[in-house]
TrEMBL record:
One of its GO terms (molecular function) is ATP binding. This is ATP-binding cassette subfamily B protein. Residues 330-565 form the ABC transporter domain. It is found in: Cell membrane. PANTHER family: ATP-BINDING CASSETTE SUB-FAMILY B, ATP-BINDING CASSETTE SUB-FAMILY B MEMBER 6. The chain crosses the membrane at residues 14-44, 56-81, 124-148, 154-171, 241-263. Keywords: ATP-binding, Membrane, Nucleotide-binding, Transmembrane, Transmembrane helix. Its main location: membrane. Residues 18-298 form the ABC transmembrane type-1 domain. It is a multi-pass membrane protein. Belongs to the ABC transporter superfamily. It comes from the Bacteria.
């Protein structure tokens, strides 16, 4: 546990100082109690020997003063340490996740990361101080008392040595059960958190179903959490009682041994009294340790969750990585890639020249998004190579690659800041003219003119104040602003309003008109397919067809069928109430379509 903690912090010096301070205090506490032996021995006799007791009283007073000073120092150090450790840990975590492959950030992992940053870092740091320090005291005080007792009476020390491992085993058992219960409780709490998010996000649906106070799943999650808590309590009851029993039995054994030594005349009254005091202080911390054990386990689990993120290997970086990409040419050379067992891409080869736009098409799950992700090096390929400007992306510095790449997702996330700051993310030092030009090219200027505070309008959490099409225009404007030579677009598959659709479509065409730029778009609209210089139809992770859209339409294959269906879908949406493209499987025979 201590090892795990130590390895967790990037700069463990503060932790070492805190542990050293607490350890010195604990040993001092044990030694001060040890002073009682000669003091009582000198005082509890028919003629008290003050000369003999004086040096011990002085030593005790000095020890107490040192203990008090250390205590005064340790309290603020403890507070400062818990803040500092949490801050250190959060920075360490953020620095580490910045080196992870972008493909690591799945929904589930994003949730874990949020929990790690908001809860686990704070818990681990606070508990290190509030639980870790008393745990050290509860271990070192009995250890010191044992050493002192050895000098007073070896038989009593032997009894202490017997009680310690017995209580240690009982404690270990109860701590294991507490750990398992804590993990179950954490899983139940995570389930509740998930359901609570759902409760907020799905309010309209839940209200329509008259379940606004919570779905059946939410209630089930709450019941499960309560049941898990009760189960945990029930399971730890017996081992907890066993531990208390061992400690109590130990104390009875100490009393019996003390009485026997006294009656046999082997240990005088004064020493017997001192031994009893030592026994109490030996056993008492063991009892406290049992109260700390649950919290220690909770801390260990938080530490383990943090370590599981911190131990994720970063994206490998070549020693002599290229820092400047010569051209925006993209090439896939016999690429194979799998997320798990099933291949997502199989022997994919194609080339995209600068100054061209390539449209990726294919049914859901055919590998379009994976192609986009591999160009931006979200993951490394298993076989073959992805090259940009003729260089394998694994040999290009990740920051340099990302400097030249802009990704426009279907769901654009904007920060809860002004529209200007959201745009400046692409180029923090952009001049006003550059901002205005990018906004104009992306047809964002007309949106900004309509907004109440223009460029200074806050876009709300995730960009909620803007429509989907407007958010995409912000994202396209970022691509213009950073002069990205590689633009990867996942065109919105759901319908945009006609104004946004025309604006986004024009902005994409404008992006593609730059002869230095390569645009790859997952296309869902005939207009985009018509504008493309090259189309690649994917099926089951393999290239089914490749050529110019015109050529492929004439050949009457998968692309032609898909094109007709997109056209038809648009016609249906405009002319009737039938659902739009989402219900089509482009590579299914038309007769089988709805
Ligand atoms: N993060 C992931 N982890 C595991 N498997 C994944 C992941 N992302 C995609 N896949 C799988 O890889 C295959 C290709 O998925 P991909 O998202 O590239 O297809 P797509 O053509 O973009 O689909 P869609 O049009 O639905 O977005 C699918 O079988 C998908 O289930």
């Amino acid at each position: 546990m201590i090892g795990n903690l130590y390895r967790l912090w990037p700069h463990p010096r503060l932790l070492i100082r805190l542990v050293a301070l607490t350890s010195i205090q604990a040993v001092l506490q044990g030694l001060l109690l040890g002073c009682l032996v000669p003091i009582l021995r000198a005082l509890l006799q028919p003629m008290p020997d003050f000369a003999q007791v004086t040096p011990w009283l002085i030593a005790g007073a000095v020890g107490l003063a040192v203990y008090w000073v250390l205590n005064v120092i340790a309290t603020p150090v403890g507070f400062a340490a818990s803040m500092e450790l949490a801050a250190q840990l959060r920075h360490h975590l953020m620095r580490h996740v910045a080196t992870l492959p972008l493909g690591w950030f799945t929904g589930d992992r994003k949730g874990r990361l949020a929990r790690a940053i908001t809860a686990d870092c704070g818990h681990a740091a606070t508990m290190t101080v509030t639980i870790g320090a008393p745990a050290i005291t509860c271990t070192l005080v009995p250890a010191t008392i044992f050493a002192v007792t050895l000098f007073v009476d070896w038989r009593m020390a032997l009894l202490f040595a017997l009680i310690a491992p017995l209580s240690f085993f009982a404690l270990r058992r109860s701590s294991r059960i507490a750990a398992a219960a804590e993990i179950e409780l954490e899983a139940a709490a995570t389930e509740i958190a998930g359901r609570a998010i759902e409760l907020g996000q799905a309010q309209p649906v839940l209200r329509a179903a008259r379940q606004s106070a919570g779905s059946a799943r939410m209630r089930a999650a709450l019941d499960e959490h309560r049941a898990t808590y009760r189960r945990g309590l029930g399971r730890s009851l017996v081992p907890d009682l066993a531990f208390t029993g061992v400690v109590m039995a130990g104390f009875v054994a100490v009393l019996c041994l003390g009485a026997k030594l006294l009656l046999d005349g082997e240990v005088p009254v004064a020493e017997n009294v001192a031994l009893l005091v030592l026994a109490v202080r030996f056993l008492e911390p063991l009892g406290t340790l049992s109260e700390l054990v649950g919290a220690l386990r909770a801390m260990d689990n938080a530490v383990a969750r943090l370590r599981s993120i911190l131990s994720t290997p970063p994206l490998p970086q070549a020693e002599d990585a290229t820092r400047q990409i010569a051209t925006a040419e993209i090439e896939f050379a016999d690429v194979n890639f799998a997320y798990s067992e099933t291949p997502a891409l199989r022997a994919v080869s194609f080339r995209c020249e600068p100054g061209t736009m390539t449209a990726l098409v294919g049914p859901s799950g055919s590998g379009k998004t994976t192609v986009i992700r591999l160009i931006a090096r979200f993951f490394d390929v298993a076989d073959g190579a992805v090259r940009v400007g003729g260089i394998d992306v694994r040999a290009i510095d990740q920051a340099a690659l990302m400097d030249d790449v802009a990704i426009i997702f279907q769901d654009v996330y904007l920060f809860d800041d002004t529209i200007e700051q959201n745009l400046r993310l692409a180029k923090p030092d952009a001049t006003e003219d550059e901002l205005a030009a990018a906004a104009q090219d992306a047809r964002l200027d007309e949106v900004i003119r309509r907004l109440p505070a223009g460029w200074a309008t806050r876009v709300g959490e995730g960009g909620a104040q803007l429509s989907g099409g407007e958010r995409q225009r912000v994202s396209i404007a970022r691509a213009f602003l950073k002069r990205a030579r590689i633009v990867l677009i996942d065109e919105a598959s759901s319908s945009l309003d006609p104004e946004n659709e025309a604006a986004v479509s024009q902005a994409i065409a404008q992006l593609a008109s730059d002869p230095r730029r390569t645009v790859v778009v997952i296309a869902h609209r005939p207009a985009t397919l018509d504008r493309a210089d090259q189309a690649i139809a994917l099926r089951d992770g393999a290239v089914a067809e490749i050529g110019s859209p015109e050529q492929l339409r004439r050949s009457g294959g998968a692309f032609a069928m898909l094109y007709r269906q997109y056209e038809q879908a648009r016609g249906w949406r405009i002319g009737s109430n039938r659902p739009a493209a989402a219900s089509f499987n482009p590579l299914k025979p038309e007769a089988d379509q709805p």
